[in-house]
Design a protein that fits this description.
heterodimer, A: 180 residues, mainly alpha, 5 helices, B: 164 residues, CHAD domain, 74% helix, elongated
Chain lengths: 180, 164
Amino acid sequence: MKARKVKGLDPDGPLDANLRRIVAVRVAELHSFGKAVLDPSDVEALHDMRIAAKRVRYVLELGEPVLGPDAGRGAKRARALQDVLGEIHDCDEGIPRVLALIDRLREEDVAAVRDSADPTASDLDPAALRRARNRRKYAGLESLVSYMRARRAVLYAEFLRTWAKFERAKLGARLDGTGR
Amino acid sequence: MARARPVPGFAESASFREAAIRTVEVRTEEVFEHRDNVLDISDIERVHDMRVATRRLRAAMEIFEPCFPKKQFRGLLREVKALADTLGARRDADVAIAAMDRVAAELPVADRAGVNHLLAELRAEQQQANEALAGLLGQIDSDRLHERLLALAAETGATAEVPA
């Protein structure tokens, strides 16, 4: 996700004012995903919010000596958000990967079992199952998918709590100068 | 994970540009301090530390972008991003392997074959990512990225007359 441009930055101007301008844009950017992420299946919005949280975190970590303890606390909240969204992202990438592996192993087994038959065979003997060399792999992988789906649901609930805390902290108003 | 080193004089910087110069110098040094042993896959924290330092440098460069000469800055940022991405690919494989090891340990032995298959794929990806990282680190040395990043800060400072 491309970062929103911060207008009006002045390299020769004071550090504090420039940082507050960046914080205001980055926090607004983060909040812009607030509605979309309420849909747990909106993988793209969750991913974009993670990137936005990372940008908020880094500007606050960097600016803490100038912006004060609110920035430090805000950076910690943004990091918590980034971390849980990162774990959700790992599930969103991992689940399709494991499902694709199961499909690939199954295709290999189907081909091996089918190829064991005589080309003129009218049916396939169940003994051909022995040619399915991946047969011992499915149970563990199916269990892994179940675990990852369950973990994703747990993480999403944790994300909602973390996001609610972030919103309650009203970080933008505290740090962009408008709340002072 | 190593904490970011404080940037001396940051809060007292007379301008946004002065803070930019000080920050990019410190964050650049941090990246290259973590360079040793990153290719050792038996100690995955080394690559993690260098990745975190690279991400901090990249973030600082993006925050302070308007302070630097555009042409010189763009190329350097691209190189820092490439380093961050390559370190990230290695780190992703490291983390996935550690996670799958934990999953495999919880499964009955009879059910581990599939996860072990996945682990073998992930180890091959880790090896590939490590080879890509080795190649990029060699490139960075020959292209003198470290020196050029410090030069970016120094030249920007010389123009803006930043106090020492």
